[in-house]
Amino acid sequence: MSVVPVEVVPGGARAVSGTKPGPAELGPPARLWPSLVAVYRAQLSRARVARIPLLFVATFQSVGITVMMRGVVDNGGEARSVVAGASVLVVAFVALNLLSQYFGQLRASGGLDHYATLPVPPAAVVLGAAAAYASFTVPGTLVTAVFGCVLFGLPLSNLWILLAVIPLAGAALSGLGAACGLLAPRPELATLLGQLGMSAALLLGVLPADRMPGIVRLARDLLPSTYGVEAYARTFGAHPDWAAVLVDLGVCAGVGVVSLAVAARAYRRAAVR
After folding, report:
1. Full 3-state SS string of 38-106
2. Residues 208, 212, 216, CA angle at the centre, nearest 5°?
3. Distance in angstroms (rounded) separating the CA atoms of residues 87 and 85
4. Which of 39, 68, 215, 220 has the most Cβ atoms closer than 10 angstroms to its Cβ?
5. What tens digit of pLDDT does each residue of 146-158 get?
6. CA 236/CA 171 separation, integer angstroms
């Protein structure tokens, strides 16, 4: 048996020892859309247990407000504000109140550490949770709108505009609710901020603007849900001003982009602490 020197063997020990292993390659970063869909499905299945109580409370509250206001306002322009405001209030109840509580408790309990370990962008976590909670507002908003229109004798022909009002107003309010929950130092304060925001949406969105003093009208113009209310209320007329409706929806969309960006940044800061 002949012996072959190790120097002439391809891939021998000396050849192996002379090469230095390079750094391991990282996997590709997670894309926003697949991550958002994954978070949305997870949040949707998690919140499904509380769906019936959530729908009942939000819808019952808004329907009760329309019944209460039936004896206060007439069937003219004030009735349009009441029906539109009560319909959007369902969205505000979930987006401002419940979402701020959720993120506040998630931050206090350390639940953000779980999401921080997942390879998903911060915007996907905020958008996925907001979209999941907002999905439960669709039936309640439609029920409130139909009930209010029948109660006040308003037309149902332009009810389809809610398909645009719900996601755009929901995005603007969800961003604010998530930001309140993530920026509040304590979960109790996050709950308080969410309830204050919902109360503002109730008082400034449902009550007719003509009966408000000037300083209150200014506060009403600063509330994002007001533009969703105005967009829906404009469609009750015989000849709606669709240009004004698009402007109101555009304001909701713009505020939604800014508020969700602020919430994503707040999530990033809270997750790394």
Report:
1. HHHHHHHHHHHHHHHHHHHHHHHHHHHHHHHHHCCCCCCHHHHHHHHHHHHHHHHHHHHHHHHHHHHHH
2. 115
3. 5
4. 39
5. 999 999 999 998 9
6. 24
Q: Can you tell me the distance from the alpha carbon of 228 to that of 192, in angstroms, rounded to the nearest whole number?
A: 24
Structure tokens at 25: 């390659």
What gap in Å lies between CA 62 and CA 20, rounded to an integer? 69
Two tokens, residue 32? 């926003």
Q: Which two tokens stand for residue 108?
A: 């206090």
Q: Which of 150, 140, 164 is nearest to 234 (CA)?
A: 164
Helix (H) or strand (E) holding 268: helix 242-271
pLDDT tens digits along 43-83 = 877 766 656 677 778 888 899 999 988 888 877 778 898 99
- Return the structure tokens found at 167: 């996601």
What average pLDDT is seen over the chain?
A: 82
- What is the spatial distance between Cα 218 and Cα 221, in angstroms, rounded to a whole number? 5
Q: What is the pTM of this model?
A: 0.82
As a whole number of angstroms, the distance between CA 245 and CA 165 comes to 10
Question: Which portions of the chain are predicted below pLDDT 70?
Answer: 1-30, 47-52, 272-273
At which residue do the structure tokens 């109840």 appear?
93
